[in-house]
Amino acid sequence: ISGYSLVIQARDSGTPPLSSSVTVNVDISDVNDNSPVFTPANYTAVIQENKPVGTSILQLVVTDKDSFHNGPPFTFTILTGNEEEEFTLDPHGVLRSAVIFKHMVATEYVLCVQAKDSGKPQQVSHTYVQVRVIEESIHKPTAIPLEIFIVTMEDDFPGGVIGKIHATDQDVYDVLTYTLKSEQKSLFKVNNHDGKIIALGGLDNGKYVLNVSVSDGRFQVPIDVVVHVEQLLQEMLQNTVTIRFENVSPEDFVGLHMHGFRRTLRNAVLSQKQDSLHIISIQPVAGSNQLDMLFAVQMHNSGFYKPAYLIQKLTNARRHLENVIRISTILEKNCSGLDCQEQHCEQSLSIDSHSLMTYSTARISFVCPRFYRNVRCMC
Prior knowledge:
Blueprint: E1 3-11, E2 19-27, E3 37-38, E4 43-48, E5 56-59, E6 62-63, E7 75-80, E8 87-89, E9 94-97, E10 108-116, E11 124-134, E12 142-143, E13 146-153, E14 160-164, E15 167-168, E16 177-180, E17 188-190, E18 196-199, E19 206-215, E20 220-232, E21 241-245, H1 250-269, E22 276-284, E23 291-298, H2 307-316, H3 318-321, E24 327-331, E25 344-360, E26 364-378
Parallel strand pairs: 4-11, 13-20, 13-26
Antiparallel strand pairs: 1-2, 3-6, 5-9, 7-10, 8-9, 10-11, 12-15, 14-18, 16-19, 17-18, 19-20, 21-23, 21-24, 22-23, 25-26
Organism: Baryphthengus martii
GO biological process, one term: homophilic cell adhesion via plasma membrane adhesion molecules
Keywords: Calcium, Cell adhesion, Membrane, Repeat, Transmembrane, Transmembrane helix
């Protein structure tokens, strides 16, 4: 407890008794009685041979229960094990190489490291760091090509994470880093450490081929990453049809079924080869294991087929479609639960282009806007 606040009252013996009170604040001064604590108590680290001088090997983590003026900054010192000055330790507790290590010269070093706090008198603690020198990387990283599909309303893409590169390396201790050619950084970014791909706002319609590579420090391997951007037209929303699937997650649909279903759907509903099928969005149905896919079909002369026509085509081809994935229902309107009696039901769809949903697998990623369906009885 760092302090107390006391209210003290004095009362006399008169009739009637009179009194007054005063507040007394008592601050407890900290004494430097806690030593720094290493977490964990001792360390094990590895470094590959032939790494350049200055390579980061380990970050020491130290805490102190005393108040801030008796704790950090800490002073780190290597007490033993560094007689040949193979290592350096910076003021932030980062252990780095000071030489180029060779596995044939030595395979292991044991350092005794001291941390000293800033109190008076100073408190110290010690840890042991075991550093193993291993052979340099002998295997190249392997990465899976990634194809990304982005659907957005006209010129209204807000940006965000659109996918993740999946890469592996047979060398157990290799640390993989990802890079993107500088000329593409005005539109995209790649997280150096985890391979996440980020698109910046305002992407135009079209196809982008990203020049991405993954490196283990010795080998650098290119990765095929292709991004397709499709901008929706407002007219599409007035001519949409929803197919509802049973027992499928968005990721499974994207990774396992989307290519095959798109091909089968094109064969079912396109009247001419020049017609265009637009998958607008996919979205889980709340409170169920169903999935809605929203699509429209554009005629080659730029108009759109009416939902009633598409539903007729789908109904005729339903058996072929279900060879790919099980369909729950085909919706033009979603008026279940509404009893409009002498009136009729009207459906309206709205797209929230700033609320993007990203469904990503190792090979394919689908980014689409969230949609809302509103129904009401009309005269």
